[in-house]
Predict the 3D structure of the following.
Amino acid sequence: MYEIAIISDIHGNLEALKAVLADIKERNISKIYCLGDIIAKGTHQQECVNLIRENCDLILKGNCDEYFTSDIDLSTKSKQEVDRIKWNKSKLTEDSAKYLRNLPYCYEFYMSGRLVRLFHATPEKINDFVGNIDTIDRLYKLFLPSKNTISNELADVVIYGHIHTPFIQRIYNRTIINTGSVGNSIDVFRNDEKDGNVENTTVANYLVISGFLNSTNINQQISYELVSVPYDIDKELEANTDNIELESYEEEIRNGKYRNMQKIYKSFEIRGIDKDRI
Ligand SMILES: [Mn+2]
C-alpha cells in the first residue's frame, strides 16, 4: 500500500501550510501533490511557494497562480482590482512568478486499477466552479477528458481543489473528490440555520489517498481520507497587518464566509439551482 497526500489552495496562509505539512510528516507520508493556488489572499505567498517547492513531488497550476503571474491590462480594471493585482504581484519574486506561470494543468496515475486524474478546477477550465451541490450533468463532466488532460480516457477518480470545500461523492460508479483548501477553507453554501460549528469549516483540509500505485489491477483495495487540521488563525492574522484585503481575509479564515458570494449566487442562477433551498 502506498499513501499520497494531496493538498490544494494554500493562498499564502503560512500557518495553515505549516500545520498541514507537520501532520503529513507525522503520518510518515513521503509523497505530496499540490493542486495549485499557492498564492493570492494571504501575505506569505513567497514563503508558501518556497515550502511547496521544497516539499511537493508534483505541483499543478491554479487560476490564481495563472492570473497574478500574467501580464494584465490594468487599464481595463477597477481601481480596487488594480490595487489588488499590484499587492499580490509584489509578494512574489520574478523567479517564482515564472515558475508558477509554467506549471502543468493536469496529472494522471493509476492506483489499484483506477485511473486517477488531478486538476485544479475542471478538465476544461482553470477557473470554472463545480460545487459539492451542483447539477449531475456538470458533476459527470469532471470525468471527461479534454485538450488539457494527459490521456483521452474517462477517469475513474477525479481529484480537484478550487472550491475550498472538501467532499467525496460517488456517481455512475466513479468517484469525485475535492481536497478542500489548506489556507482558505470556506463553506460556499452557508446557511446559518442549518450549518454546524464554524470551527469545523475553517480548519486546514487535505486528502490522503491510499492504494497500489501504478497498478492496473482493479482487485486491490483503495481508500480516500479527508483530513482536517486545526492551525493558529490568530497568529496568521497577526502577520497580515499589511494585507490590503484584511477584512475579507479575516472573514474567510475566521468565519468561513467567502468574500464574493454574489459571484457564486450568479452561477447558481445560470444552473437553475435555487440558492434559498441550500
Ligand atoms: Mn482556485
Residues 129 and 267 are 8 Å apart (CA to CA). Residues 14-26 form the longest helix (13 residues). The radius of gyration is 18 Å.
